Amino acid sequence: MTDPASGKAGEGAHSSEPSAVTPANPAPPNAPVEEMELVRRARDGDMAAYDDLVRRYQERIYATVYHMTSNHEDASDLAQESFIKAYQALKSFKGGSSFYTWIYRIAVNKTINFLKQRKNRAQMSLNDLDFNAEHDPDLVALISDKTPRRDINLAELQEKLNEAMQKLSEHHRIVVTLHDVQGLSHEEIAKIMDCNIGTVRSRLFYARQQMQAYLSDYLK
Amino acid sequence: MSTAPEDFEQLRKLLKLKRHEQPPPRFFNNFSSRVLDGIEREKAKTDVGRLWEEAPWLARFFRLMETNALAAGGFATAMCALLLGGVVYSQYMDQPSVAIAPGGESVMNLASAPSASLVVGQTGSDLKASTNAIFDSNVPGSPFSSLGANMQPVSFTSGNGQ
User: Fold this and answer.
1) Which residues of B touch A88 (CB under 8 A)?
2) Last residue of some domain: B95, B113, B139?
3) Is B113 in the same domain as B80?
4) Cβ of B21 and A218 within 8 Å?
5) Is residue B77 part of a domain?
6) Cα A29 from chain centre
7) How far is CA A45 from CA A38, A86, A88, in A?
8) What is the per-residue pLDDT across B90-146, written as a single tens digit (0 to 9) for each?
9) Contacts of A75 in chain B (CB under 8 A)
10) For an engineered disulfide with B109, which of B12, B14, B57, B97 has Cβ 3.0 to 4.6 Å away?
11) Count of domains for chain B
């Protein structure tokens, strides 16, 4: 993967599958123009402009890192560090891609490096499920009496799911996170990960197979 | 190998659970200010790093202070001595320095006296100021008078106007 600070990737766009953890601050249609203006001002030392950029993407970046690490404290630190690194590298951001794609790439690379170092001391610190989880029809169906594991509750299911995620390699986990959890398209993921779409598709397929096997008891 | 999405429909439904995992309430309220604080901290670190680069001797000096207790103690002692010396010296400078001339009379130091030399009498009541030379033989207590020498004004004239 190339240096995220080079800003090599192309224009990012939001997927038609929005993630429930990220839609709080969706980018408006004229975002790229306004965003580039904010980037220009931030590059000139305007901290208020950078504050605006951080507020735009903080939830999406945090969510991506969190789903990769399954640890709130690590996600909080890594998300902050990603924004700090992005500010320091802002002078090298040429605008060839959107700031959105660029900051995503920084966060993903930073997280992958972190996970490689952390490998042997992975410890989950999961966030609480929000109130809506109990009313999500798909989830209700999963823990209904049709499920073989009748005694399971959402918290257990959450833990099992995160364990399955942690069993994937970093590159497979990021594809599942960005596509199935965050709702990004294959094209966007390819730009963020600096690989071709075919690689994204095959990684996604393999990752899903692995997870399906691990969670077979809960998916019947 | 089939990559049909329906194969993983159940899994995708289960993965929706991840979307409901939320950070603690108000976590994002001050997230950006924490980022900006971090940026300021990094800037400060960079400034210190630049100082070390520009003055490597300073870095070596601080490293020596950190690693060598003897050097640190010596430096601290020297600094204390310098401070004490400064205090003593400043107190000494605050007092008017008065030199005692032979015969019990005191003559103020020229450095602290006004532009004209001031001769102070023994009793303090007979002060007289003069712009003449200090070592006037007519002044009581002058080293010249004690030797019995008498000083006279001398004028030199050249014979041929040379």
Assistant:
1) 39, 42
2) B95
3) no
4) no
5) yes
6) 22
7) 11, 13, 11
8) 888 877 655 555 555 555 554 444 444 444 444 444 444 455 555 555 555 555 555
9) 23
10) B97
11) 2
